[in-house]
Amino acid sequence: MKKFGAKLSIRKKMMFIFVGLILFLLILLVFVNGTFAEWYYMANKRSDLVSIYKEISKVQEKDLLGNDSEVLKLNRMTERNNVSVLLIDSSMRVQYANVYDVSILIDQVQDYVLGNKPPLLDSGDYLITRARDVMSGAEYLEMWAQFDNSNYLLMRCSLDSIRSNVSISNQFIFYIGILILAIGIILVWFFSRRISEPLLELAELSKKMAKLDFDAKYTRGGADEIGILGESFNTMSDELKDKISELKTANYELQRDIKKKEQVETMRTEFIGNVSHELKTPIALIQGYAEGLKDGITDDPESMEFYCDVIIDEANKMNRMVKNLLTLNQLEQGRDDTQFERIDITSLIRGVVQSLEIMAKQKEADIRMNTQEPVFVWADEFKVEQVVRNYVSNALNHVDENRIVDIRIEERDGKIRISVFNTGEPIPEEDIEHIWEKFYKVDKARTREYGGSGIGLSIVKAIMESFHRECGVLNHEDGVEFWFELDTEKTGIGSGQAEDDTV
């Protein structure tokens, strides 16, 4: 079941709410006025009686009742508060009165003297009580007091006038409420239109936006909440238009990525084929030599040692290839954290060269550096070491009969370039753009000879891409130069050092 008012427009809802609120307030006001107004008036009247009592007490103490100005002041005070006053002495002679017929008031004084009337308020100095006139039936609020000079004071004010005032005020409140209600209905109807019409326009605008019509705009303007909402609609329309354009672009890119994924799948298949091919030869050798040893193909200790060395060597080759593949995969997937720090590239290169000293002696190669001075760069030390190690070991594996490996550290365009040159045959031009690809080998026979897998340069490329820095290769007449660049923070490059120092 739908809630009441669910189908009502905002204009009608505002009308019902306003009318209900006005009627509630009107009824509440009449109730409060009828219930508490009389009590409030009586409290005020008691306060007025006390004020007049104090003034009369002061005047008679100073014996100023014969003073015309003081009498005039008392008259104004009593008339303003609608209070009848009688002041008489013990002989019942009138000292002051603001009424012509004092006989009734004198009778009331006698009743108080005799103690016939209970007090409403007894302060010790005066008594305040409610009294009813037997003859007229009217009800009064009266004050009775006796001064030290034996004068008696009686004051009274009509309670009927208070009730009449309450009734009149209730009528006035009712009529005013009806007038406010009528004016309010007109105003609510007018202002509700000013609210509902912009909202209807926004509703229509939302329908157009739902149909992807983003040319429609909110045009009423305004600095109020609805105007702000309208501007938000316009902004949302523009943003949705842009987002849809972006989605279309993203859809196009998605289609392109799908094609790329298909290409990656093809590359994955080729990758598996390359890995299988690279592992097939060492696995076959290990299997063959292991079976030969098991079958007792030879009893010669030297031959058996040779077979074992071949098995160990081929196993080491497979181990290195697997490690390099894991490293390359981490780099390509972006899962390898890069920790930049300030390092001395000269010291790092010397450490790599020292670790390859045995290999260099086997190749009878002469490794040279152009500087021994510290050169500081910002990079990941472990990854830079991998790059240098791949470059130097690659140079040692491809060095010719001249057997020279030249390592240079130079500053170019605010960066440090590290290059590794080896004498030997240049790389064929058709192979240069492929040497960074996985498993690509320029001379497959020679690569197999020194146990290369075609992964080292791919690792170098991936590392430099993670640094957002360049690397490359240059052919020379007498050899090949591989290089890479790093950000610099230098303290000096080769100052006071010979051009070519042998390590």
Draw up the topology in text:
Layout: H1 10-61, H2 68-80, E1 84-88, E2 94-97, H3 103-113, E3 121-122, E4 126-132, E5 139-146, E6 152-158, H4 160-210, H5 225-294, H6 301-333, E7 341-344, H7 345-355, H8 357-363, E8 366-369, E9 376-379, H9 381-398, E10 404-412, E11 415-423, H10 429-432, H11 444-450, H12 456-467, E12 471-476, E13 479-488, E14 501-502
Give the terminus-to-terminus CA distance.
93 Å
Q: Could you state the CATH homologous superfamily of the domain at 337-502?
A: Histidine kinase-like ATPase, C-terminal domain
Total number of strands: 14
Overall average pLDDT? 75
Which class of secondary structure composition applies to the elements?
Answer: alpha+beta
Task: Give an overview in words.
- The chain is of the alpha+beta class and 503 residues long.
- Among the domains are: 10-166, 2-Layer Sandwich (Beta-Lactamase), CATH 3.30.450; 337-502, 2-Layer Sandwich (Heat Shock Protein 90).
- The protein has helices at residues 10-61, 68-80, 103-113, 160-210, 225-294, 301-333, 345-355, 357-363, 381-398, 429-432, 444-450, 456-467, and strands at 84-88, 94-97, 121-122, 126-132, 139-146, 152-158, 341-344, 366-369, 376-379, 404-412, 415-423, 471-476, 479-488, 501-502.
- The strands form 2 sheets. Strands 7, 8, 9, 10, 11, 12, 13 and 14 form an 8-stranded mixed sheet that branches. A 6-stranded antiparallel sheet has the order 2-1-6-5-4-3, sandwiched between helices.
- The longest helix is centred in the middle third of the chain and has 70 residues, at 225-294.
- It is rod-shaped.
